[in-house]
Amino acid sequence: NEVTSVYVVVEVPLVKSVTPLDPEELTALMEPGGLISKKLKGYEYRPQQGAMVETVARAFNDDGISLVEAGTGTGKTMAYLLPAIEWAKGNGERVVISTNTINLQEQLMHKDIPFLQRALGRGFEAALVIGRGNYVCLRKAGQLDREPELFAEPDELDALSDLMSWVKATSTGYRAELSFIPRPALWKKLCSESDYCMGSRCPEQRRCFVSAARRKASAADLLVVNHHLLFADMALRGLTGVHSDLAVLPPYKRLIIDEAHTAEDVSTAYFGSQITRLRLARMLGRLYRPTGGGRGRLTYLTALLSRLQGESGGLEGVRGKVEGDLIPSVRELVSFSDGVFDAVLEVTAGLLGHGYPELKLRLIPAIIESQEWKELLENEVSELAARLTALAGRLNGTSKELALKGEEALEDQCFDLRASADRLEAAAADLVRVFSGGGNNEVTWVEGRIGGGERNVVRALSSPLDIAGELAENLFTPVPTVVLTSATLAVEDSFEYLKSRLGLNLMEEDRVEEALLPSPFRYEEQAIIGIPNDIPPPGDDLFDDSLGDLVLRSLTVAGGKALVLFTS
Question: At 295, phi and psi to the nearest 5?
Answer without folding.
Answer: -135, 165
